[in-house]
Amino acid sequence: MDQIIIQTLHGLVNGMVLAMVASGLTLIFGIMDIVNFAHGDLLMLGAFVGASVLGVTGNYWLALLVAAVVIAVLGAVLQVTTLRPLIGRDPLTTILATFGISLVLQKYALWQWGPTVRRISEPVPGDFTLFHLQYPWYRIATAVLAGLIIGGLWLFLKYGKYGIWIRATTQDRVMAQAMGIPVPLVYTAVFAIGSAMAAASGVLFGPFAGVTQTMGFDFTLRAFIVVVVGGMGNLGGSILASIFVSLLEAYAAIVVSPAQAVIVSFVVLVLTMLFRPTGLFVPTPK
Amino acid sequence: MLVLENVDAHYGKSHVLHGVSIEVRAGEVVGLLGRNGVGKTTTLKAIMGMVRRTGGRITFDGRDLTGVPPHGLAGLGIAWVPEERRIFRLLTVLENLRTGLDRPGVTPDRRERLLEKVYSYFPILRERRNQAGGTLSGGEQQMLAIARAMMLEPKIILLDEPTEGLMPRMVAQIQEIVHALHRDGVAILLVEQNVPLTLDAAARVYIMEKGTVRHHASAAELRADQRVIHEYLGV
Amino acid sequence: MTAMPAARPRPPAAGYWIGFTVVVVLLVIAPLVLPPFWQRFATEILVWGLLAMSSDILIGYTGMVSFGHSAFFGLGMYGAAAALLTVKPPSLGLALLYGLVAAGAAAVFVAYFATRLRDIYFAISTLVFSQIFYVIIFTWTEVTGGENGLTFSQPRLTIPGIWSDRFTPVTFHWFVLAVVVLSYLLVRRITQSPFGMVLQSIRENEPRTRAIGYHVERYKIVAVMLSGLFAGLSGVLYALQNKFAAPDFVFFVVSGEVVIFNVMGGMGTLVGPFAGAAFFLLLREGLSRFLTEYYLIPLGIIFIIMIIFLPQGLLGFLRRRLNT
Q: Which burial class, exposed, middle or buried, applies to B187 when counting CB atoms under 10 A from its CB (0-12, 13-18, 19+)?
């Protein structure tokens, strides 16, 4: 029973972090049809930048902010130099391009920070007690923070002037342009926002497991799964799917090893693709 | 103001416009008639930069439109109301309007006035302003599409088959709107299949066939002698 | 059956056969003149090229991107390992058989997905699929050796009644060359056939191909099976050459590299993948001398630049010539 409670908490917390990662990915996919293979690596770089800033300043929140901004700029640069030239071409090319970017980013991180695992220390110390169980405060704080950030994103999209631009461009790029919305700029901005969210997720996740060059791939893979299960381009769906999939994995980890628990997510993905390809949390299209 | 000189256009390998020459002066309503598929919509798309122009020139207020990015046209004063309306279905009516309203240089005062004006022309939009665009009826969507274009305070509106699929009552309303826009001094390039409406609203009319302009006359002449209309449109 | 939408292939020009013979002759002589390291390198290029060619059947001809070829490769590898470890004396034929069967079984699964999913969903599902295999192989230590993989000895080349002897690096290279050349010729024959024409038609415009009356699903299934079998074959060859099987080769990165070979070399050409493999591996060799493990940074950048500016790959310009 204790196990179940702990795993539920794990599932929820991991789910919230994954939701942050997936929101960026689904936003990018929804607006420009790009499957960003390098998304997890942007997360990874964000974690490294965060770790470095933390090492220098000792301030977690500054680290979070700087990481998000730096990676946002990196994302914008990448989009303008490598992805913008590929607009209008076969979608395969963007998958390949982002795959190439992923390889380069991973090796760059290795070059820049070396092979030792970096640590990001917990921003909020101590455990909180639920019944007789202990659970680290910082993980709860992480989940809450992730929720706030996602909420902020949602508000921005719903009410901000630029939020309207983004939503209009996502629905009908051509008409958005006809209305004077500078679509190329919107694309770059969205990619930057997605990158920033990935980077922030990396810093949030840092204290959980340490920062390594290869930590990105797992997130990319899970984010893909969640985006498909939640409905591609569907922000609310990917959040629900993140929590759903993370909970399933957490429970599975009670029975099998964590490395094998990931198969559960794979199975959910495959079933979704075969039977409800528009997404599990999306009403069945007529 | 808007001048197409000998414009050629291609869809991939298909040569769809041949030497199209059309002019719309400031404040004028000009009609573009022709059967289905002759290239009327394509002509509008060529102006909007959505179709590859392979010959000729398009100028607006003397400025060559080559090299103007698609999102720059609204800023120059060109608004487009496409045939399928293309309202943003998941945005509310107000948000749809805001895509045109949220421009640099529009003071809060002017925003209010523009919105009020549009709501006075289309009261139903005020009623439905917080409803998603996709929930509106066909006629209401057409009104929203026109209202949205008006938000740009354009010098010219490219109006593509606004009465298509609408009930007679709505068609009359559209006719009213076209007149009102004309009174406001907005030029209109009106693509239509509805001949009487076009002849009533427009000062001059071009008739297209097979991707080129076949005939050009004042609406008055065409009203007087309907033979040309019969020849090209079979009505 | 309605008329074919594409033109009937003309017999290839003499130039093609001359070029082909030259290349084969060079590859035959290669192990005799090259130092040992480069001998092995040449053999490896052939093996990876075969893997990339198998992927080209899907990417270049049928228009289906697969990120799962590492699964077929890995299963071929582990299948061969299974034969060589469980049956004494180790038999070449059995290694080939086990490997192909294992890869073929996986191909059946993937073929099923191919009929139900399109484009990006198919690509993601192949990625996930190969990762599932990776996890299973990595964690099922009792059977697969887990992280450490399996080692075994190289079997003899036994042609009943004619030959039975150990391989030398040179003879092994010739063996691989023979297998690869035969595979290439076979696949080429298939892609030039009416069957191949239909695959290309599916790549160009699937709905139209279906509308004309072809059972697109059946063609896709066969394409996936072929691709999987040849990929498995390359896995067997790799296992035979290196005498080990390891989970690293089932990891997604291998699938990614395969796609890189395809893109760099030229999709839809069958020879392109070999050129792409050679180009990539040579660059890797060269760059890693200066940059050790960071060779991937410039290599990755070169790859990205090629996607943007040279999307048809090194030999892509030959695509028309080679296929009509």
A: buried
